[in-house]
Predict the structure.
Amino acid sequence: MDQSHPHHAAHVVFGVAGAALASVIAFHVLFYSHQYGFALGLFLLILAGTVIGLYALGGRRGNAWAFVFLAPFLLSLVAEALYASEVVRFFGFILSVGSLAMFTYWLTAPPVRFRDLRVLWPSSMLSETLFPFNRLGEFFRTLARGKSDARRVLIGVAVALPFLLLIAILFVSSDLLLQKTLNELFTEEAMQRFLSRAVWDLFAAGFFLSAGWTILTRISEARRPKEQAASKGLDAVIITTFLSLLNLLFISFIVYQFVALFGGATAVEARGITYAAYAREGFFQLLAVSVIVFAILSGIYHYTGMRTWSVRWLAALLMLETGAVIASALRRMMLYIDMYGLSMLRLWSTFAIILIAVAFAVLLIGMFSRVRFEQVLKALALGSLVVLSLSLLVNTEDLVVRFNFNRFVRRAVDSVDIRYLMSLSSDAVPALAEYGRLPWSDENPDPMTRNILIKEGTPGPLNEELFRETASSTDRARLVEYLRGKTQGLRERSAKDPFALVISDYRALSAVVD
């Protein structure tokens, strides 16, 4: 640790402690009860602010290009604040935390040009961002150095607290009489809530203390990323044989299914299989095939550099064949959506396979441009972070509702799966409210006012004969009742907890149905 200033060590220790305390308070108030929405965004912004503060405290120059990672970080937080869907909450959390970890690591690493990096996630990144506990002991040793015995005792108490709490919990759970005694003093619910919060707060305190100390010591010691040794390559004959066999398999499959799928319903139904059943099967299997091939070719690119012409051209041929497979998968999904409507799973699956197709194109361009695999991988990683975080800003549930209702309005289908649409989050409520205002009637033949049928059972592939037998008609009141119940529930949640709602929840509150 740099000792150029007589009180520098004390400033560093108190800086880490203060940053950790602020982070623990934010964790307790914001993140513990809400792992999404405004609370998550505010919590992660506080963490980003403490990282920048510790970087400034370190007093050495890092990597300014690390601020690029704040773009997907902030985009993900905006999406978290906008929408309530499970997709946004899941991917928003992963993207924001992952981007913040990369920002933290590279901002505080010794200066290095971005183009000189081999990987964006070296082996030391995990131990110095997401799991930095190995430096917690070093922080306490520095804190105790040169201090009085009384201060050392306090430090010992602080170190012992997590262990005391954990062992006390185990003791309580092992003794029914002790549990009864405690329950007479505190309610069981209050005791469990207190213990749970205390455990997580102590864990958070340890994490933020060790993370802060890891950041500052990496700056002061100029610790460079730990990377794996460069690969020695693979035998070209083995790889050529392997790729040749894969190409033969792909060509056989493509020729067979080209006649079947692209030949239309006649070619399929001539074999005793309905076109609907054929379209319904196979998309996810072909998606899995595309992912496997991408992983295989990425590994070959990494270990061989595609320097041998036979490997390079066989890999290119396999990419083109995989492109045909992706086109087939998309064709199946479009047929499936045309027959059964759009769902969140179908929408995001389609988006995923399009992303894979783009990744194949980038891989192909890099391969024939003789770009090092590390550069291609970095471009794909950064591009994926930005594209995925941007995609979260689209209200996909609103798209699903409007797509399905518009098909019904145009008489393209005879029914709408209202039960599935009502299972969506607040993101879908404004669109549902628009259609809820229509004066539906069984007698009115106009498509804008036709009665909507509700499927019995869970959402899934529609058996049309069973549907005609079990479907029951409903009027506008059914949807209106759902929307009013949803609105009432949102009001109650808002009254209890201001952080419980996101912007789409407030938009749903304003979507009043007459």
